[in-house]
């Protein structure tokens, strides 16, 4: 009988707390969003499952090594975030998957990517005024870049205690891009602007596509070395793709490696969302201001698009500015969908990829600036 | 898909301008579907998940208002709502004879365009040619 009671005392039923139950519900909700609603399923499914795994009472998965006993599985996998390993590897995959041609053939669209980063710095200042430290404020502001790996990287380096909330906020808003962005885009543009058909992009040469990552890394390395872990790997992945002599490496970066890292990253981000870290007033502020940062980024991107539209005599559809927040590839698809509603034969997708790539570069530069200055 | 001749499919109007390396990205995305006489290939109002390319057979496109026409040309495309917002079919398509079609899932098509914009531009230009050649038929 004593053994039976001992067994019962070791079960989750005897040790469950309300806060753990709330986290389990949050984990299940993220699974629902990923599976039923198909919102960023590649990330929300492992994140949601990771939340479940660590919030069961007595869960051994995040236990630290002690007295010669090894730690939990997720504790060791989490080292990949703590040591800043996973986000750069994801960036390599993004570089290998992404065609930079729209940015190369129309470099002006980099300005749209830059404009959309204003949300990051605006939110950074707001968070400082609310009493967060500069490191915490930077970690929250970066959510506005709508770039999950960058948000995780910066947060892990600057404010690891906020990592769970920052990454859940970043990925949630990336998943909600099709809901958050269109009203802002429609509010700031006229019907005529949304109907603008852009001129076909010129074709880029193989030499240009190879030189872009090489020159990009030289410039980054010399001007902002703090951005090298992210931008360096982004450019390396893109060079794999474009140089044409390392197809196997390119495919590995796009598929096998990327998928493995996504699993580790998602699980361990979820694992960082324990009740004690996540169920706080700070988390609510992070979710609210993350959304504000993202909305500002979308708005400033569109407004810069309007400026470029005027400056070019109506040749730029301002909607593509919204893709400057990065959120690859979803925000470019949102531009396409909003534009096509006004003009069904209009294809903005290719044009929106320019600011989209610009946004990835822009948010990595913003992270590098924070790391260098703070 | 393996039993279809890649070289012959490459000659279809929509793929004719693609470079060999571009074709190698498109070909694996194509599915071959056999249809039988009377089969409904597309239902009006359904979510447009796929774009179809005719290889063989006669197909009737019929609208709710009673308008209808048939397509039977090899390489003609059906279901371009798969690449046009709001991604919903706007007509019914029924096979009048047994036939064969190629199918490209909408999601793969969008990924392809984003992954290689030069290739995307070529395909969209071709689809626009088809759309412009059928100005009175709605979006399908």
Structure description:
The complex is a heterodimer of chains A (374) and B (140). Chain A is mostly helical and 374 residues long. Chain A has one domain. Chain A has 22 helices and no strands. In chain A, helix 6 packs parallel to helix 16 (228-243), helix 8 packs across helix 22 and helix 21 runs antiparallel to helix 22 (349-373). The longest helix of chain A is centred in the C-terminal third of the chain and has 31 residues, at 281-311. The termini of chain A are far apart. With 140 residues, chain B is of the alpha+beta class. Chain B is built from four helices and eight strands. In chain B, helix 3 crosses helix 4. The chains are: A mainly alpha (374), B alpha+beta (140). Chains A and B meet through helix 21 and helix 22 of A and helix 3 and helix 4 of B.
Task: Give descriptors for this structure.
heterodimer; A: 374 residues; mainly alpha; 22 helices; globular; B: 140 residues; alpha+beta; four-stranded antiparallel beta sheet; 4 helices; 8 strands; 28% helix; 26% strand
List the helices and strands and how they pair.
The complex is a heterodimer of chains A (374) and B (140).
Chain A: H1 2-9, H2 12-15, H3 18-35, H4 41-55, H5 73-82, H6 86-97, H7 101-105, H8 109-115, H9 118-129, H10 134-141, H11 148-158, H12 163-175, H13 177-188, H14 191-194, H15 206-223, H16 228-243, H17 247-254, H18 256-271, H19 275-278, H20 281-311, H21 330-342, H22 349-373
Chain B: H1 6-10, H2 20-26, E1 31-35, E2 40-42, E3 50-56, E4 59-62, E5 68-71, E6 77-78, E7 92-95, E8 99-105, H3 106-115, H4 117-133
Antiparallel strand pairs in B: 1-8, 2-7, 3-6, 3-8, 4-5, 4-7
Helix pairs in contact in B: 3-4
């Amino acid at each position: 009988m004593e053994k039976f009671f001992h067994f019962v005392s070791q079960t989750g039923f005897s040790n469950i707390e309300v806060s753990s139950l709330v986290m389990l519900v949050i984990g299940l909700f993220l699974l629902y969003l990923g599976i039923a609603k198909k919102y960023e399923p590649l990330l929300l499914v492992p994140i949601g499952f990771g939340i479940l795994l660590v919030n069961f009472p007595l869960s051994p998965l995040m236990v630290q090594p002690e007295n010669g006993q090894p730690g939990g599985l997720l504790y060791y996998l989490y080292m990949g975030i703590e040591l800043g390993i996973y986000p750069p590897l994801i960036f390599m995959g993004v570089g290998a998957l992404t065609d930079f041609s729209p940015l190369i053939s129309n470099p002006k669209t980099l300005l749209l990517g830059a404009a959309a980063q204003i949300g990051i710095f605006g939110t950074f200042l707001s968070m400082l005024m609310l009493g967060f430290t500069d490191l915490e404020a930077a970690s929250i502001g970066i959510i506005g870049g709508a770039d999950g790996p960058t948000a995780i990287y910066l947060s892990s380096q600057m404010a690891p205690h906020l990592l769970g909330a920052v990454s859940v906020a970043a990925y949630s808003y990336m998943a909600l891009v099709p809901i958050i962005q269109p009203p802002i885009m429609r509010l700031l543009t006229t019907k005529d602007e949304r109907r603008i058909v852009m001129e076909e992009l010129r074709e880029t040469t193989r030499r240009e596509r190879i030189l872009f990552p090489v020159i990009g890394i030289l410039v980054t390395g010399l001007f902002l070395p703090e951005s090298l872990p992210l931008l360096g790997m982004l450019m390396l992945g893109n060079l794999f793709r474009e140089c044409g002599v390392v197809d196997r490496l390119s495919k590995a970066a796009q598929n096998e490696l990327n998928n493995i890292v996504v699993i580790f990253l998602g699980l361990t981000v979820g694992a960082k969302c324990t009740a004690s870290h996540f169920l706080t007033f700070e988390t609510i502020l992070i979710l609210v201001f993350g959304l504000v940062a993202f909305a500002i980024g979308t708005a400033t991107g569109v407004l810069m698009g309007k400026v470029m539209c005027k400056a070019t005599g109506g040749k730029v559809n301002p909607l593509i500015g919204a893709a400057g927040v990065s959120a690859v590839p979803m925000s470019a698809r949102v531009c396409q969908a909003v534009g096509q509603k006004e003009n069904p034969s209009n294809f903005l997708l290719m044009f929106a990829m320019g600011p989209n790539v610009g946004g990835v570069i822009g948010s990595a530069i913003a992270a590098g600036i924070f790391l260098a200055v703070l | 898909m393996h039993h279809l001749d890649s070289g012959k499919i490459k000659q279809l109007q929509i793929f004719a301008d693609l470079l060999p390396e571009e074709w190698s990205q498109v070909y694996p995305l194509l599915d071959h579907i056999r249809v039988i006489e009377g089969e409904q290939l597309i239902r009006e109002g359904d979510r447009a998940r796929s774009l179809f390319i005719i290889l063989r057979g006669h197909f009737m496109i019929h609208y709710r208002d009673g308008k209808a026409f048939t397509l039977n040309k090899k390489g003609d495309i059906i279901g371009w709502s798969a690449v046009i917002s709001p991604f919903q079919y706007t007509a019914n398509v029924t096979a009048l004879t047994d036939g064969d079609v190629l199918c490209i899932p909408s999601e793969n098509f969008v990924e392809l365009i984003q992954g290689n914009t030069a290739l995307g531009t070529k395909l969209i230009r071709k689809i626009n040619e088809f759309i412009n050649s059928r100005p009175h038929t709605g979006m399908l």
